[in-house]
Design a protein that fits this description.
D-amino Acid Aminotransferase, Chain A, domain 1; Rossmann fold; Dna Ligase, domain 1; ATP-binding; peptidoglycan synthesis; six-stranded antiparallel β-sheet; alpha+beta
Length: 303
């Protein structure tokens, strides 16, 4: 483990996803220390990032989620300090964190993603409903973990959904609601990992059902025919490449009943908690949690 040198596990932070990041980071830190890595906890909400340079850290495992950790800002700081870090670089991190611009890149590349509208205080709510239909999924453009997100089932609820999302972000996106199988497609470097099928209570895969209940069912293997799973994995890898992602990540998608896939979001620093999907998929691929953490850390780089 000497090849890794002194390692900082960045977790916590000041985003709305701090609580989840704390769970991810503690799990990663324990796994690395158990493997013999000289790993240390580092919370950017409590310490100046430049301490990483002053204290001689050789590389960083980013277990931060949301803004200030997954959006290119920390990645840029680490680039300036010359400290290799896990996951995607500055551009891909910033792009993938912005759901609106992610969609524009995917659409420009000919990749399928649900139709959408940008909402603000002056939006014509009726026109949005007529264009996208109901239900509509409303969410902040720069948050993850379903923070501030609402499934709108009645036209009268659209403004309230925007108001909730706007508490988290000035940029709010309304998305056509696609019905079908909810799937996630993790990857590790250039290797797609097995798909995970998500079956949430009443189809509501919200913050609570993601992290704090055992009511959501996860199927891995996902149960799809091998050829269809391979097609979806290839789509996920293409979606990551056009955004410039590297290292590891997870694309979320919907598969309709008639077999059409729709890309939803790209996660460049996915959760690493007991309920998280990348570790679940990696286990099916033969990688235990500790080995997965080491593989991700091994891929730390600059530029």
């Amino acid at each position: 483990m000497k090849q890794f040198g002194k390692v900082a596990v960045l977790f916590g932070g000041s985003s709305a996803e701090r609580e989840v990041s704390l769970m991810s980071g503690r799990a990663v830190l324990a796994a690395l220390q158990e493997a013999g890595v000289d790993a240390h906890a580092f919370d950017p909400a409590e310490r100046d990032l430049y301490a990483l340079k002053e204290e001689g850290y050789d590389r960083v495992f980013i277990a931060l989620h949301g803004r200030g950790g997954e959006d290119g800002t920390v990645q840029g700081a680490l680039e300036l300090m010359g400290i290799p870090y896990t996951g995607s670089g500055v551009m891909a991190s910033a792009l993938a964190m912005d759901k609106w611009r992610t969609k524009m890149v995917w659409l420009a590349a000919g990749l399928p993603t649900p139709r959408y509208a940008i909402l603000d205080a002056g939006s014509d709510w009726g026109a949005v409903v007529r264009d996208l239909g109901l239900p509509i999924f409303v969410k902040p453009a720069h948050e993850g973990s379903s923070m501030g997100a609402t499934k709108v089932t009645e036209a009268g609820g659209l403004r309230a959904a925007w108001e909730l999302a706007a508490r988290y972000d000035s940029l709010v996106i309304a998305e056509e609601f696609i019905t079908g199988e909810e799937l996630t497609a993790p990857f590790l470097e250039d290797r797609p990992l097995p798909l995970v099928r998500i079956v949430a209570p009443d189809g509501n895969y919200d913050y609570q059902n993601k992290y704090f209940t055992d009511d959501t069912r996860y199927d891995c293997p996902c149960g799809l025919p091998a050829a269809q799973e391979a097609m979806l994995q290839a789509l996920a890898m293409q979606s990551a490449r056009v955004l410039g992602c590297r290292g590891w990540g997870r694309a979320d998608l919907i598969l309709t009943d008639d077999g059409r896939p729709y890309l939803l979001e790209m996660n460049t620093a996915p959760g690493m908690t007991a309920h998280s999907l990348v570790p679940m998929s990696a286990r099916v691929a033969g990688l235990g949690f500790g080995e997965l953490c080491l593989k991700i850390l091994e891929g730390a780089r600059l530029g």
